[in-house]
């Protein structure tokens, strides 16, 4: 009986959360249509994204929409509001549309001051800012809610692709490609996830001291083996990858990239097949 009651409570919470998202997205959308964004290009861009998402069946990144002037304008507004004209480090957090509570918790921690400074001495202060990159869920009410969140807080860049585990590599590469339009406005970009806490007071100064000579900094996985088990989600055949080892690369929840090498990474990503196995 207690188990049934517990299951019912969980089910009820899920229903209430679903209704909250539906009602919130409608109410906040109505309020936004009467403010500075009314009839704006950004509203048109966000609405079009929901109708014209980049397909997720393709094994290669589709960059067809990343030069869209409306996407560039949308990204510029976010950077203007959250980062100003220039920062030393942009920290972009990969975030799922569903993770509204994580983004809200993070905003509560960093407070209202969008652009932060960290230093080891009074002479050297390094400015950094936080933005989120969020794709689309395919659920209209949730996607509208996140659009509203982006307009309200000006810290979410909407990435025009469908959110999925398979699309995670695409999402990172696409986020970098979008930020690369503004490469003169930052020296480094730090990729991380929305459930990761960064000790910026330690890490940011280290980028400009101990790590200054490196173009990419992260936890390096040395020559990982290519997985040949067909049922594994990371399976790759000999046709896909002839070598038995990948190149060494940084992995995990975060890594730092110098802005001058971002373009090269994007070019390689655009012709590199991802390794997630769609059969699983």
UniProtKB/TrEMBL annotation:
GO molecular function: hexosyltransferase activity
Enzyme superclass (EC): transferase
The keyword Protein biosynthesis belongs to this UniProt entry's keyword annotation: no
Coiled-coil regions, chain positions: none
Membrane topology: Single-pass type II membrane protein
Family: Belongs to the glycosyltransferase 31 family.
Protein name, UniProt field: Hexosyltransferase
Species the sequence originates in: Thelohanellus kitauei
């Amino acid at each position: 009986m207690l188990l049934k009651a517990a299951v019912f409570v969980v089910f009820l919470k899920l229903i209430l959360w679903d209704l909250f998202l539906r009602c919130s997205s409608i109410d906040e959308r109505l309020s936004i249509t009467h403010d500075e964004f009314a009839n704006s290009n950004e509203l048109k861009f966000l609405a079009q994204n929901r109708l014209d998402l980049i397909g997720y069946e393709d094994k290669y990144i589709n960059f067809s929409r990343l030069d869209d002037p409306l996407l560039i304008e949308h990204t510029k507004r976010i950077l203007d509001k959250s980062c100003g004209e220039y920062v030393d480090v942009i920290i972009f957090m990969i975030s799922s549309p569903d993770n509204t509570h994580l983004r809200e918790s993070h905003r509560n921690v960093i407070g209202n001051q969008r652009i932060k400074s960290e230093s080891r001495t009074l002479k050297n202060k390094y400015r950094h800012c936080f933005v989120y990159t969020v794709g689309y869920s395919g659920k209209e009410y949730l996607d509208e809610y996140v659009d509203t969140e982006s307009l309200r807080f000006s810290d979410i860049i909407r990435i025009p692709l469908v959110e999925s585990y398979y699309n995670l590599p695409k999402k990172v590469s696409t986020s970098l490609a979008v930020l690369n339009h503004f490469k003169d406005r930052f020296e480094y970009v730090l990729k991380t996830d929305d459930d990761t806490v960064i000790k910026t007071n330690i890490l940011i100064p280290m980028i400009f001291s101990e790590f200054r000579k490196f173009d990419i900094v992260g936890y390096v996985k040395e020559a990982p083996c290519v997985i040949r088990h067909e049922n594994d989600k990371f399976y790759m055949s000999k046709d896909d990858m002839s070598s038995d080892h990948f190149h060494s690369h940084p992995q995990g929840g975060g890594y730092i990239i110098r802005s001058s090498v971002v373009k090269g990474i994007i070019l390689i990503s655009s012709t590199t097949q991802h390794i997630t196995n769609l059969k699983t």
